[in-house]
Amino acid sequence: MAGQTIPLTFGRPSDPAFFNPTDWLTYAKSLGKFKKWEPVDCCILTFNYDWFKLLKKTLTLHSKQDRHIHIFKVGTKKIAGHFVSVGGSKSGAELEVLTVLGIKKFVAIGSAGSLQKHIVTGDICLPTKAIRDEGTSYHYQSPSKYSYPNAPLLHKLEKILQRKKLSYFSGPTWTTDAPYRETIRKINTYRKEGCLTVEMEAASLFAISKFRKIPVVSVLGISDELTSNHWQPFFHHEKHHQAKEKLIDAAIETLTV
Question: In the chain, how many H helices and how many E strands?
Answer without folding.
Answer: 7, 11
